[in-house]
Amino acid sequence: MMLFVKISMVRCHVFKRVYADLVVSCLNFTAGFEHSENSICPAVRMRQFYIWTLFSVSWYSAVAAQDLQPPAAWRSPNITLSREDCINIARAALETAISNLNQSAQFGDNIYESPGRLYAQMAEFDRLTNQTKYKDMLKQYFLLAEFTRPGFLDLFYNLGCEVEYPDFLAFAVTAWTSARRYTISEDEDELGTMDTKQFTYPSSCQGETLTGGTYFASDPYNTNIASTSSGFFFVLSALLAKATSNNTYIDAAVESAHFIQSHLLNISNSVVLGSIEPSPNCAVDASNLVSDCAGSGLFIEGMVVLADIMAYNTSTIDLLRSTIVDVTSNSLWHEVPTVEVITSSRP
After folding, report:
1. How does residue 109 score in pLDDT terms, banded at 50, 70 and 90?
2. CB neighbours of 89 closer than 8 A, spacing ≥ 6?
3. Among residues 342, 340, 338, which one has the least CA distance to residue 23?
4. 238, 19, 239: which is closest to 127 by C-alpha?
5. pLDDT-based confidence at 256, cuts 50/70/90?
6. Most confident of 109-123, 136-150, 188-202
7. Cross-strand bridge partners of residue 276
8. 237-246, 268-277, 282-291: which range is least confident on average?
9. Does the CA dihedral 282-288-289-294 come out positive or negative?
């Protein structure tokens, strides 16, 4: 069973759902930050609506000192649509996607995380438009989604929703608890084993602990720790920490951030690599950085929330700034189409 699924690129048959993601992000971009809607890696772009909104509140003046303006080479870096136009387009896209849900609040392709993306965007739309249009609908959808897969076993089902709707917090905690069983704790790192996996792993790779790494799949024999699974857990832990001030979530967020920074963050260009296989030889997969770019977007999103929780300490801010500048200007995905059709061989 797949535990986490990378979302950096999309299949053509879910285009309308992804279009809702991209159009809703326009609502945030028009609020104060201009950049090209076609030049950035899709996953980084889909995540930036969280990032720039947070920047614009209490940190905008500090960030302005950094060179975060779109490079001159980007095509159409300015968004000219009005806020009203963005709202209307987003609403139409969301309603089209919603109309394709079945009685179980799932899509016909049976890809479990796809409705989760839609749910997150429905909540984000309500937040940006200061309304509760989708709140009751989402309550029902979440109940149906958990019935389909108890414990959710997919973090996308709770990213952001607990922030917009506090009474959704229990859903987020359920998803976090499920994923925690596949995330290496400090004790499990020392033991080199965990209850949900039927193999042993080293206590460290390249001299760094594996604490905070989240396995990609619930298969007890799958050894892959991906940047997407670790990134999703990082973001959800950070959001729960912000919502509850609970040290359990704060510690989990810090551990995930340290894991990604230590094992998957490319020090030469700040791009987050795809995955690491601690067993048997700590091999890092950097073979397809373009299609694995979701990890970079998730790392940035998690760092934004973590920076707020940690009162914008210097080291966190410096890492966040350098990562944003390097990732958004990286030439790896400047020519990537807005929608990329791919197939995945991952389990």
Report:
1. confident
2. 23, 26, 81
3. 338
4. 239
5. very high
6. 188-202
7. 225, 284
8. 282-291
9. negative
Q: Is the dihedral of CA 193, 199, 200, 205 positive or negative?
A: negative
Mean pLDDT of the chain: 73
What pairing do the DSSP bridges indicate for beta strands 275-277 and 283-285? antiparallel
The identity of residue 103, as a single letter, is: Q
The 3-class secondary structure across 207-261, one letter per residue, is CEECCCCEECECCCCCCCEEHHHHHHHHHHHHHHHHHHCCHHHHHHHHHHHHHHH
**Can you tell me the distance from the alpha carbon of 275 to that of 298, in angstroms, rounded to the nearest whole number?**
14
pTM, to two decimals? 0.69
Q: Is 347 helix (H, G, I), strand (E, B) or coil?
A: coil
Start-to-end CA distance of the chain, whole Å, equals 8
Instruction: Name every residue whose Cβ is closer than 8 Å to that of residue 242 and which is 6 or more positions away in sequence.
Output: 163, 305, 308, 309
> Residue 98: how many CB atoms within 10 A of its CB?
18
φ, ψ for residue 47, nearest 5 deg:
-90, -15
Mean pLDDT across the stretch 241-257? 94
Torsion of CA 126, 131, 133, 136, to 10 degrees: 90
Reply yes or no: is the peptide bond before residue 77 cis, omega within 30 of 0. Answer: no
